[in-house]
Write a structure and sequence with these properties.
With 369 residues, the chain is of the alpha+beta class. The protein has 13 helices and ten strands. A hairpin with a 5-residue loop joins strand 8 and strand 9. The longest helix is centred in the last third of the chain and has 22 residues. The mean pLDDT is 95.
C-alpha cells in the first residue's frame, strides 16, 4: 500500500462506514472534486461501497454552506421518497456522517472531505448515445423538481454566486471586452456582435424571477446526462447526483442546460459548424420527459418559457467561453489554441439554429399546457 492509499484509508476511517475498510481507488472522470471508490468487507463476507470525495474549495469557497445545502436537500428527498414507497437508499444520495458528528471533514492540511453511499447496480453516461437515456434523464430531473417543489429554496446557500445570472454573465463579458487584455477582440467582432444583439434576451428570466413572475425553485444547475444514475437492469433514471451546485433559481435553468448539452447534434467544441444544430426530436423527447417528471408542478409561464430557457442557457454558456477567450483562457481548460473560441462558436450556432426553429420549439412546449 502506498502513502496516498494509506492516507485515503485513514481519512475514510473517520466516517461511519459499515464493515472493515478494504480498499480505495480513484473513481469517475469529474473535473472539479477528487473522487474515490471505497470498498468495505462486511462480516457476512458481502461488500459495501462508498464514494469518498475531496471537495474543491477553490471552486466552492464555502464548503460548510455547500454541505448544509446537500444535507438539507438529501434528507428532504429521502423523506419524500420514503413516503411515496420508494427506496431512499438508491433514489437519493445518502451522506455518511463523520464519526463524532458532522457531515464533512476538515483535515489539518486544509482539505475538505465528504462521503456518500455508493448507488449500486446503476450506471451513468457521458454522452447521449441512446435517446431513451436522454428521456430518462429528463424524467429524473423533472421528478427532482417535483420532489423539491415545497422545499424552501430561499434557505439555500449560493455555492457559486450568480452562477446562472445571465445579466451578471453579460456584464462580466462586457468587462472582458472592454479590457481586451490580449488584444483578441478585433478578431472576434462577429461573435461579440452576436452577444450584444441579444442583450435584451439576457434579462428575460432574471427580471421575471426578480419580479416574482417566475417561481423561485431548488435547481440543480448542472443537468448533464452523467449526473443521473440509471438502473442497470431497467434503464430507468433512479438518482440525481452531484449536488454541489444545488441553489435557488428557475426550473428553466435545469431544463435549458440539458437541452444545450443533450440536443446538440455536434460536440461542444466542434469546429465544423455545419454539424451543429438543435435536434428537434431530442428537444421534444426531453420536453416530454421533463414535464412528465415534474408531475404538474410547473406553472403555465414556465412551460411557455421552456424554449427561452434552452436558448438562454446556451447563449450564457457561449458568452462565458468567449469572455474566457478574451481574458486569456484562465477558467476553462483548453487543449489547443482557440479552444474556447471553438466552444463559443458551437454555442452561438446552436442559439441561431434555435431561433430559426423557434415556432416549432414553442409549439412543442405549448402542447403541454
Amino acid at each position: 500500500m502506498n502513502r496516498e492509499e494509506s492516507r485515503l484509508l485513514h481519512i475514510s476511517g473517520k466516517f461511519e462506514t459499515d464493515g472493515e475498510l478494504e480498499s480505495v481507488e480513484p473513481h469517475g472522470n469529474g473535473h472539479i472534486n477528487d473522487t474515490f471508490l471505497l470498498t468495505c468487507a462486511l462480516p457476512s463476507k458481502a461488500k459495501c461501497r462508498y464514494i469518498l470525495q475531496r471537495m474543491n474549495h477553490e471552486v466552492f469557497k464555502d464548503p460548510k454552506g455547500l454541505m448544509e445545502n446537500i444535507v438539507g436537500v438529501t434528507a428532504f428527498l429521502q423523506k419524500k421518497i420514503r413516503e411515496q414507497g420508494g427506496d431512499p437508499r438508491r433514489e437519493a444520495l445518502n451522506v455518511i456522517p463523520v464519526r463524532g458528528g458532522g457531515f464533512y471533514l476538515e483535515e489539518e492540511d486544509g482539505t475538505f472531505w465528504r462521503m456518500y453511499r455508493f448507488v449500486e447496480d446503476a450506471v451513468s453516461y457521458d454522452v447521449v448515445d441512446r435517446p431513451e437515456h436522454f428521456y430518462e434523464s429528463a424524467v429524473a430531473f423533472g421528478h427532482f423538481q417535483k420532489l423539491l417543489d415545497d422545499y424552501p429554496a430561499e434557505s439555500l446557500h449560493e455555492t457559486i454566486p450568480n452562477f446562472h445570472n445571465t445579466v451578471d454573465r453579460l456584464n462580466n463579458f462586457k468587462k472582458a471586452l472592454e479590457a481586451d487584455a490580449l488584444k483578441r477582440a478585433g478578431d472576434v467582432s462577429e461573435e461579440i456582435r452576436f452577444v450584444l444583439d441579444r442583450e435584451e434576451d439576457c434579462h428575460v428570466l432574471c427580471d421575471m424571477l426578480a419580479s416574482g413572475d417566475l417561481p423561485l425553485r431548488v435547481t440543480h444547475n448542472d443537468t448533464k446526462l452523467n449526473n443521473i444514475m440509471l438502473d442497470r437492469v431497467t434503464g430507468k433514471g433512479i438518482c440525481v447526483i452531484d449536488l454541489d451546485t444545488v441553489m435557488p433559481g428557475s426550473a428553466l435553468y435545469d431544463y435549458g442546460d440539458s437541452i444545450r448539452f443533450g440536443a446538440n447534434t455536434g460536440a461542444e467544441d466542434e469546429r465544423d459548424l455545419a454539424k451543429v444544430s438543435c435536434d428537434l426530436e431530442l428537444f421534444a423527447l426531453y420536453t416530454k420527459g421533463f414535464i412528465e417528471g415534474c408531475g404538474g408542478s410547473l406553472c403555465e409561464k414556465e412551460i411557455l418559457l421552456l424554449p427561452m430557457g434552452a436558448k438562454l442557457m446556451t447563449l450564457e454558456c457561449g458568452m462565458r467561453f468567449l469572455a474566457d477567450y478574451l481574458e486569456g483562457d484562465h477558467y476553462f481548460k483548453i487543449h489547443r489554441p482557440g479552444h474556447n473560441l471553438d466552444r463559443c462558436r458551437t454555442q452561438f450556432r446552436m442559439v441561431k439554429d434555435m431561433e430559426n426553429k423557434w415556432g416549432q420549439m414553442q409549439a412543442i412546449a405549448e402542447h403541454y399546457l
